[in-house]
Write the structure tokens for this entry.
Amino acid sequence: MTGTPQHEPSPGAQGTRGDTELLDLVGIGIGPFNLSLAALAHGAPRDLTTAFYDQRPAFHWHPGMLVEGATLQVPFLADLVTLADPSSPWSFLSYLRSRDRLFPFYFAERFHIQRAEYDAYCRWVGDHVPDLHFGHQVDAVRWNTERDAFEVDYTKVDPDGEAEALGRVHARHIALGVGSEPYVPDPLRPLVEAPTVPVIHSADYLEHRERLLAAEHVTVIGSGQSGAEVFLDLLRARPVGAERIHWLARSEAFAPMEYSKLGLEHFTPDYTRYFHALPEHVRGDLVPRQWQLHKGIDARTIAAIHDELYRRTLHGGWPDAVLTPGVRVRTAGRVATTKVELHIEHVQQGTRDRMTTDAVVLATGYRERPLDRILAGLDPYLRRDSADRPRVDDRFRLDLDPSVTGSVYVQNAETHTHGVGAPDLGLAAWRSATILNSLTGEELYPLPSRTAFTTFGLERPGAPAVPRQATALTPLER
């Protein structure tokens, strides 16, 4: 940081906003979820004053994984707005119309669009929806008792991250959409921090792709969709018979993601409400067991990998590619300055081995970004569960002391309270509409009362819950 930043009034869509203006909503982070909230707030039948801040210079959605041909795992209807407001000008179909691409899309008959196209669509929305402020890093959020409002401090930064000005804005409500961050297992952290051998997270894959292709031997670690896409992309780019790729995974199989029609009902508002009503300890036990709902591999990607491997056997021989599930990396170290040695263990066999590789791609997933820094000023008001995680109510609000009359809403930071649908794009519009209805106290966006054929609990859809004390079980039923 150079120089002394000067105080800057908060900018608005049409110019500058004075520090004294009280906004209805301030969004922190502009990923797909808060971008959805901004788009629906802008199109709401009631005027709302909003401002959304993100420290990045522009919107980009997982740029390191926009691998050519990779598709979303949700249909195009899971855009930013359609499942709450199909008539919104910010729908994916509106984007296609603005590009004169409706008829090509119609004849392409694609229900699942490419990731790069989804990124382009979101950037189009980000370029047109007002009150989005990139290059603004939020530093602190406090509750101002005198103004009965949240006080948000930010730093305006240039494209290089250097501070240009300081600003402050006040709002009745806050929406946290800071997203997730790449996760690196502890045994591999020392390797990532030393740059002499390429050990990169899949989030940065495209940036390092040419370097990885030049490596003599590459190891991919992780059995989810990202690991599968990286493995397939490397496989297709390497010579037949000289692939030299090893794919390791802790899971017991390279398993397909649950994609049956009834299985997908776990990503409905009905299931979200059911999950939220479960006891805390039940929720905590349930989420890890549901990994195949959201951490498996798309069946089409599995088929493409098998097709590519099979194609390489047509003239005899087997590809020099090893796929080994059920393996964990115990420790790792460098061999001289050009190689990495992985100490691995096969869990079922109880056997251990060492392998040497020239590059490693960590497709080890993401974790919800901690909120402690941003929420430090609200910590005295914040109520937590037995695991010291923030409590979140059924309308996505943090459980705060009653003296705080405003609400802090969270997006994709509530898996522990709302289940596996928290990071799912298909629930973005519904959650955004729920938040807007809650903060205004009005039904700005009518939402469906029932969304699944499955009844997840004993309650019938639209009927009151069955009183627990009113139903005694017979010995046989027990």
